[in-house]
């Protein structure tokens, strides 16, 4: 996840790389039928109805967006999971035991239990709690707080933002591949991408590139190639590869006090300001 000057016409960063996972999705045990699921859901709905009696701005139930699982994890984190009662939910996203809204969201997006096909929506957030009915969530020292991740994903508190991006991921992937380190090529003509200054960037330009799970060592390698072709000295580069410990969304959502992306980004930006 780099901070780089070359972007396509939609503003997408050049080094935002995505790959199709080759590892097969793990098989998860879905457990026995949950005869009490409907009852727990009804109880949760009744609780929301009672909350609606409070018409003040403090009542988040008034702003509840039912289509967003990550929003439910914020509005009613300890209530029985709505996600798990959805009849079209793929079995590999359903945990082995009844879970809360927060825990169900965590189970479906944490790297340990989320399927490889959802690699672009994963973090290191913890695991299901050891006990409870419904089962809660245990962060257990993970770098990303689940509430912070849910708020980021849902766009909670931001006007006109629903947490989704129509441009992601296929067109972004295609355009990103056509950028080609800022060198004109036939693919740019087809996709109407104009990134052609990859060989004439300022020699004093500073570049920060951070590789997480999807990009890995290719992210700093692309930054080095860009710098070399424009004659930018290696001393102007700040590079890091944390593919083994940072999922795709951890750089954005990890707690600031342990976030290695931020710990490099802040001094990088300070260095630019002091120039």
How would you characterize this protein structure?
This protein is mainly α. It folds into 2 domains: 37-154, no CATH class; 170-273, no CATH class. The chain contains 9 helices and 4 strands, in the order αααββαααβαβαα. The strands form 2 sheets. Strands 1-2 form a two-stranded antiparallel ribbon. Strands 3-4 form a two-stranded parallel sheet. Helix 2 crosses helix 3 (101-109) and helix 2 (69-75) crosses helix 4. It starts with 36 loop residues before the first helix and ends with a helix.
Write the topology of this structure.
Layout: H1 37-51, H2 69-75, H3 101-109, E1 127-128, E2 137-138, H4 146-154, H5 170-179, H6 186-191, E3 207-211, H7 218-229, E4 237-241, H8 250-253, H9 260-273
Parallel strand pairs: 3-4
Antiparallel strand pairs: 1-2
Helix pairs in contact: 2-3, 2-4
Order of SSEs: HHHEEHHHEHEHH
Query: Which residues sit in consecutive blocks of at least 5 with pLDDT less than 50?
Result: 1-35, 57-67
Secondary-structure content class: mainly alpha
Classify the oligomer.
single chain
Percentage of helical residues? 25-40%
Largest sheet: 2 strands, antiparallel
Strand elements, count: 4
Q: Tally the structural domains.
A: 2
Whole-angstrom Rg = 22 Å
Strand order of the largest sheet: 1-2
Shape: elongated
